[in-house]
UniProtKB/TrEMBL annotation:
The UniProt record lists the keyword Lipoprotein: no
One of the Pfam families matching this protein, by short name: DAO
GO biological process: thiamine biosynthetic process; thiamine diphosphate biosynthetic process
Xref: NCBIfam families: thiamin_ThiO
Protein name from the UniProt record: Probable D-amino acid oxidase
Any GO MF annotation of the entry: flavin adenine dinucleotide binding
Keywords associated with the record: Oxidoreductase, Thiamine biosynthesis
Sequence ranges assigned to domain FAD dependent oxidoreductase in this UniProt record: 9-350
Pathway annotation from the record: Cofactor biosynthesis; thiamine diphosphate biosynthesis
Amino acid sequence: MVNGFNMSDVLVIGGGVIGMMLARELAQSGADVTLVERKACAQESSWAGGGIVSPLYPWRYPEPVTRLATWSQSSYVHLAEELIEETGYDPELRQKGMLMVAVEDQDDALTWAEKYHRPLRKVDSSFLYQKEPNLVPGLPEGLWMPEVSSIRNPRLGRSLRESLLLNPKVTLLEHHEVTAFNFKGGVVSGIETSKGCVQADKVIIAAGAWSSELLGLVGRKLPVEPVHGQMMLFKAEPGLVNRVVLKGGRYVIPRNDGRVLVGSTLERIGFEKRTTQEAAESLHQTALDIIPKLADYRVEHHWSGLRPGSPEGIPYIGKVTGFDNLYVNAGQYRNGLVLAPASTRLLVDLMMQRESIIPAEPYAMDR
């Protein structure tokens, strides 16, 4: 036994950011871990998202989301530094703050900030244009959250994957699609995949939007469903946009090389992934409504992904009802990257039977 785990006994299903963070933290706690991914790691919603390390309009979410987000936001600084040191890959954490303009419920935002002691304040027009000179003209005021960061999620995925490959305690099995669980009563002994059987004493389902389908294989239901989103990327120049800006429920996110992401749509169309001309036109107009000078730059890419939608955006983290050794970590909805560090740590705390970073009850499967 090492820190509560038998060696070679933990299996993580799902190679997104949360699955990889789980494998990494479990291995650092002394466990030998196998991670199974149906495609390549970090190629679904972990790749497709924007990488804002804050919920959009955080005051509109229930307290359990705020608790996870608050713990996670401060941990990204240390995580990014560790990953650079371990792998040489920079996930490009940008600590530039977030501006929100044309916000209808500003009073609710300020009340939330006071309640949770979060740095958020109202700013005037001169502040807005000092921070972002290329913002659309005529904005009278906005909200400013100076501690909000963004991370370049494809590079975060690459650095996490490399960290796992470098760790002798982790076995990475990509292109292994789970077809069945081997279980009797309340105990799972392993899984069947497209490339053979994988055995484990403890199994975690962290497969994003696909987690509900996997739980169906053991006769359990989970209200997690795919929510389709489309995004767009402009090949702009460094300095055109310097920080995350929200307006009208959408956002622009700058990267270190000057590229600017614009997102995103919300569509409930099942597991279909597609891009549409209608969304392309809408996202392009969103970009110009926030930063008019983006009209001078070409669109480099337009793509879509599937978020794991859940009631009120509160994820399910903990033991699967009726099973002794099956766990779930899914349903982070639009905030997978935001909530990943805390979601990971909370589940590992529960599995190792140590005091959890925050109360676990709000995330239980049978809540």
